[in-house]
Specification:
Length: 274
């Protein structure tokens, strides 16, 4: 399992870096919209309403179509903060849903409301990525956000593997530990203090605010991972799909990003940095 996982990562990471660094924003958005469509298809498969024949394909097409419409709407910079704020409220509510336990989350996954939920989460993620990429030095800022999620994952893995003793959410994801979550937060804080302060050219209280934002985003990425794990547990599957060898499905790879990017972009907007 480790070798296919490593090979897939070695293929995907250069493609991501090349796309973000060299492609114009419209092409970045188009590729990410396609990824959103694939993730939406897998999201549908985790929900009771999405297991009907053709439902996943139709839902994926709906998400791609909505993203195309959103790109063409005027005054995007005016309504996007409100949409990202709605996504932020969702992730705050998700903390309480996770505390309610698998039974409550299974009911959410099987309700039609999860269709609206998936549309909100996936669309705000792709729009947030495009908004960041369109900023001055946007490629660097978007890569910073991606590597913030990677830092949360790596820090959690290293700390959890070596220090993990206390389960974070045993009923939802038995492998995650409280020590791992703290390790992820620490590494994200260091990433913000070093690369973040330099990339956004800030100091003083603005730098403190960025570190706090990155810690909130890192915590949000954990919530995103746990929410998808809860949906998979409700559906009785280990992975959301089999498209990526060693990793599972597309949604398995972007679940943390789906929480992190809208939160990060919304926070930057509030700070006047995006």
């Amino acid at each position: 399992m480790l070798l296919p996982r490593l090979l897939t990562a070695l293929i995907l990471l250069p493609l991501l870096l090349g796309l973000v660094w060299f492609a114009p924003t419209v092409w970045v958005y188009a590729v990410f919209a396609g990824v959103g469509g694939l993730a939406a298809r897998e999201w549908a498969a985790l929900c009771a309403w999405g297991r009907r024949p053709g439902a996943g394909v139709a839902y994926g097409g709906l998400v791609v179509g909505m993203l195309a419409v959103a790109w063409c709407l005027p005054a995007r910079d005016q309504w996007l903060p409100w949409l990202l704020g709605l996504a932020a409220l969702h992730w705050l509510a998700a903390v309480f849903w996770l505390r309610a336990g698998p039974t409550r989350l299974a009911a959410l996954a099987d309700s039609p409301l999860s269709a609206v939920q998936g549309l909100l989460l996936l669309s705000t993620t792709m729009l947030a990525c495009a908004h960041l990429h369109a900023q001055p030095d946007g490629a660097v800022k978007l890569l910073f956000a991606f590597f913030l999620v990677f830092a949360a994952d790596v820090g959690a893995y290293l700390a959890g593997r070596n220090l993990g003793r206390h389960k974070l959410a045993p009923a939802i994801s038995p492998g995650k530990t409280l020590e791992g979550a703290v390790g992820g937060l620490v590494l994200c804080g260091l990433w913000a203090l070093t690369a973040g302060v330099w990339i956004f050219a800030i100091q003083g209280w603005a730098a403190v605010g960025l570190v706090v934002l990155c810690l909130v985003v890192a915590a949000g990425s954990v919530v995103g991972d746990l929410l998808e794990s809860a949906f998979k547990r409700a559906a009785g599957v280990k992975d959301s799909g089999q498209l990526l060898p060693g990793h599972g499905g597309v949604l398995d790879r972007v679940d943390s990003v789906v929480a992190a990017l809208p939160l990060f972009t919304f926070g930057l907007m509030l700070m006047g940095l995006a």
